[in-house]
Amino acid sequence: xxxxxxxxxxxxxxxxxGVFENKDLxxxxxxxxxxRRVRRVLAYAIASLVIAFVSILAFSLINGLSxxxxxxxxxxxxASKISENTDPLSAQIQGLISDYPLTWEQSVGDLxxxxxxxxxxDSLGGLTAEGLKVSWSSCQEGACPTEWTLSxxxxxxxxxxxxxxxxxxxxxxxxxxASRPVSVIPGARSTLVFTFPELEQGIAFRKSxxxxxxxxxxxxx
Length: 221
Known about the structure:
Blueprint: H1 6-16, H2 25-68, E1 72-74, E2 95-97, E3 103-104, E4 123-124, E5 127-139, E6 142-154, E7 160-162, E8 164-170, E9 173-179, E10 182-184, E11 189-195, E12 211-217
Parallel strand pairs: 2-5, 3-12
Antiparallel strand pairs: 1-10, 4-5, 5-6, 6-11, 7-10, 8-9, 8-12
Helix pairs in contact: 1-2
């Protein structure tokens, strides 16, 4: 009896006291032991499937959240730097933010433009300008706007791929501009930072000059 596994030993002890005196106890014990083994294997299999399903579901959820965090795609170039700011503070750029007077210019000073000029609150190609923040630096003839942060939002249901350009004017004459391609998913914001270091490197303008700006679309390259 010492070689019989505990499960079978318990069955033999129980049935020896019951109504199975005239029956084949060995066959009954083996059948019941087999059924218990089958149930145990099935329980392990079901538990493994549940764990695998939960793991796959968790991975899909994490991967989906990671993909949704990608708000826009922006590339950079040589003439000026354009970058994307995914910081929630980018949504706080509303209206014009500037330490010095700055006005909007209606005329388009670029022959490559394929749209009219736009300002804050205007939409071109599916993107709407929510705000503009201008940072000024000390130049040879006084303060000049060297960094422009333009906040755009895609209020459409489509992915918008365009090439916006920002033009800087002095005394209503075109001075410098830059444009780069950008793609924005529906409902997302793209914060473009245009820097013009050449304004600090000797571009001539009057100390009392006035500054203007606008943005427009150019042909995608």
